[in-house]
Hints:
Blueprint: E1 4-7, H1 13-24, E2 28-33, H2 37-47, E3 50-53, H3 59-73, E4 76-81, H4 96-114, H5 118-124, E5 127-132, H6 135-139, H7 145-165, E6 170-177, H8 183-186, H9 190-197, H10 208-218, E7 230-233
Parallel strand pairs: 1-2, 1-4, 2-3, 4-5, 5-6, 6-7
Helix pairs in contact: 1-10, 3-4, 4-7
Amino acid sequence: MSRIALVTGGSRGIGAAISTTLKDKGYTVAATYAGNDEAAAKFTEETGIKTYKWNVADYDASKAGIEQVEADLGPIEVVVANAGITRDAPFHKMTPDQWNEVIATNLTGVFNTIHPVWPGMRERKFGRVVVISSINGQKGQFAQVNYAATKAGDLGIVKSLAQEGARAGITANAICPGYIATDMVMAVPEKVRESIIAQIPAGRLGEPEEIARAVAFLVSDDAGFINGSTISANGAQFVV
Length: 240
Ligand code: CAA
């Protein structure tokens, strides 16, 4: 029987590539989205992947949504916490709302996504957790005090979960994508984006599928001893 995988923010950008790559590998995928009904409907029509709408920042909505996915498809064995937002501004202009929105989605949202599936993974003695962090959680980024804080926090989450889950057959790892050709990066002003690409030794943005293939490896049986690690996928822009 195919494993059930939950991908938050799974109908667009990197998340969509993760959803389709896992489906191609034989997983039954549930992709969540927060607001864009049109994009989600189109995604389901094109891929056959079921989409679910909830706000990852809301614990009760996440728990109820996850219960619905499990009622529809079966126990979730793979969870990819990918949903994330940016509210970029230099720190002196950053508002408390910009700070709070990013913390709620990118950091609390990761807690809200993993916490409801964790007991089932412990009981069944198997689980795969992947959190999509960012190069900017590793190096910091001008105008991203909020985002960088959450993405660095995501690394702390997986390092701790790895230690808690290891004996129950659960692994938790993070991937730090560099600048990938998605709507999020395309929203950066063109001149700024060009200057960023100039700092990437690979000389180009990454492709969403280049992140998705790393996820597919981390959630496979072959990766059972890789636990608590951070994989950088950034074209050598930042080497740790
Ligand atoms: N380093 C140093 N200085 C910088 C800078 C940088 N990276 N970027 C901008 N500046 C400077 C500008 O030159 C300007 O200086 P002056 O005032 O002396 O001219 C100043 O900072 C910017 O001031 P503004 O008042 O014009 O800034 P703003 O309020 O209009 O904000 C911005 C503009 C939001 C910073 C915009 O430039 C921006 O979006 N930058 C990109 C930030 C970024 O890389 N975000 C990543 C998004 S992709 C992502 O997050 C995915 C992922 O995980 C990788």
